[in-house]
Amino acid sequence: MANEKKRKGDLSQPRNIATLLSVIFPGLGQLYNRRFIKGFVLFIVTISFLITTWNYIDIGIWGLFTLGTIPREHHSIQLLLQGLIALIVLSFAIAIYIFNIKDARNDAKLREDGFKKPSVIRGISSFYDRGFPYFMILPGLIMLVFIVVLPLLFMLALAFTDYNQYNAPPRNLLSWVGFNNFKDLMNVGIWKDTFFSVFTWTIVWTVVATTLQILLGFFLALMVNDKRIKFKRTIRTFLILPWAVPAFVSILIFAALFNPTFGAINRDLLSQFNIMIPWLSDPFWAKVALIMIQTWLGFPFVFALFTGVLQSVPADMYEAADVDGGTRWQKLKHITVPHVLYATAPLLIMQYAGNFNNFNIIYLFNEGNPAVRGQNAGGTDILISWVYKLTFETNNYNMAAAITIIMGLIISIFAFFQFRKTAAFKEEGRY
């Protein structure tokens, strides 16, 4: 028994040695396992990485924590970006380092089990079978990290700094302020009033405008799908026309139509009843106009979507309902609506998420105006248009970043829970 335990202890020696060598320096464990090509590649890659990036990573990490120490000489934004890039590069290096340790240990285990060292041809074949797909997606993954992840990390970092129009590099150095920006949004006078005003209007805008366009699209789809309606193709073509016109063109046209001075709505239509509505100067009427415009712009897509789904509802379901004496309302409630929602719920959720961040219509119609006393946002600004103004007009980058984080959390939480409740999402999870 003692000899058997000793023999087992001896068998465990190679894996421990290979692991230790790979921990000390990448490639040494592979060389110990006589995987010379793999070991030399990892060894050379590690040395090249350390030589070319050591100083960059060292300065980047230092700058990420300090954001500079000498005004005008150190640029906090450049140091912040360099630090984030250094973290990303370091993350890739750590991933390769962990792979190197696991690979050396696995090869040592195979040696202990009596497997022969694979030939070069077999190693290449194994890489092609297992690692080639990862190798092919690696360039896209790296591009995704630097095009998508890096800007997101930069935005997240700015939300915890004091970067604004009065404190901007290189004249001044930035500082980490923790959650102070978020606290200001909730507690400090003008920020608090503006945030809650814009936030509530954003919710109302999202819910009302999106719901109206969905209801209108659904109603029109039901009407056109009715067997008694003739010239269905012609009617569908006309109803989809607003979708064919670029949205920004339609918005600019509506901005002219709603102009209280020379717009056709006031001058040619409402003037016949001695009514003049301040569409652009009164926040309430401007919001009403925006909701009507978005309903007009959004219903064609919903109409086309529902039209296709309604045509896929099995006719025998309606026939069975007729046999059972079902009314039109019962067939709508128990057959049509469930079938439509099952097929379109994820897309309808995205409609809500899209309108929550619908910057184009707010900016092109009236740039979020009119102005509101005691607020640094316009009367029709939603969160995304307010972020735009804070970024490009008043240079309050820290507050804009904080608001963007809040927006992202709201949309993510809403979309997650709604997708989890949809039948289409649950059904897909089974396969």
UniProtKB/TrEMBL annotation:
Where in this chain does the record put each ABC transmembrane type-1 domain? 199-418
Record-linked CDD domains? TM_PBP2
Which keywords has UniProt assigned to this entry?
Cell membrane, Membrane, Sugar transport, Transmembrane, Transmembrane helix, Transport
Q: Which PROSITE patterns match?
A: ABC_TM1 (PS50928)
Under the heading SUPFAM superfamilies, the entry gives: MalF N-terminal region-like, MetI-like
Write down the membrane topology. Multi-pass membrane protein
The record, for InterPro entries, names: MetI-like (IPR000515), MetI-like_sf (IPR035906)
List residues traversing the bilayer.
Answer: 36-57, 77-99, 132-160, 203-225, 237-258, 284-310, 335-354, 397-417
Q: Does the keyword Cytoplasm apply?
A: no
Does Metal-binding appear among the keywords? no
Annotated compartments: Cell membrane
User: Into which family does the record put it?
Assistant: Belongs to the binding-protein-dependent transport system permease family. MalFG subfamily.
Tell me the function of this protein. Answer: Part of the ABC transporter complex MalEFGK involved in maltose/maltodextrin import. Probably responsible for the translocation of the substrate across the membrane.
PANTHER family in the record, alphabetically?
A: MALTOSE/MALTODEXTRIN TRANSPORT SYSTEM PERMEASE PROTEIN MALF, MALTOSE_MALTODEXTRIN TRANSPORT SYSTEM PERMEASE PROTEIN MALF
The protein, known as: Maltose/maltodextrin transport system permease protein
Q: Which organism is it from?
A: Paracerasibacillus soli
